[in-house]
Amino acid sequence: MAETLKIKVTVAGRVYPLRVKNANEEQGMRKAATKINELVSNFEKNYAVSDKQDVLAMCALQFASLIEIKAINKEEDMTEAIEKINKLNVLIDEHLNK
Question: In this structure, what DSSP letter does residue 22 have?
Fold first, then answer.
């Protein structure tokens, strides 16, 4: 069985022990925790939120929406690429049939 690393990250003032597979995963977890903490701080400064759970829910929504927006954009890019490829195929077919 692969050895795991034990790390601790702090999110919104609470420490969470985690196990990660490698240094890259550790770095990713630490960067994510840093981004969450920055967003928590930002929400607490800019909104009258008294409950950490509400702030964390707002953070989760922010990150989840970014992922969904990227997925939508990727899908739109893929559709556009397929349309361009189909147009190129038509042009190639027309040229070959001359």
Answer: S
- What's the predicted TM-score (pTM) here? 0.71
65-77 b/e (C-beta count within 10 Å ≥ 16 → b): eeeeeeeeeeeee
Q: Are 29 and 18 in contact (CB under 8 A)?
A: yes
Q: Given this model, what pLDDT does residue 2 score?
A: 64
CA distance 21 to 55: 29
Contact residues for 12 (Cβ-Cβ < 8 A; gap 6+): 36, 37, 40, 52, 55, 56
Question: 3-class DSSP state for residue 42?
Answer: helix
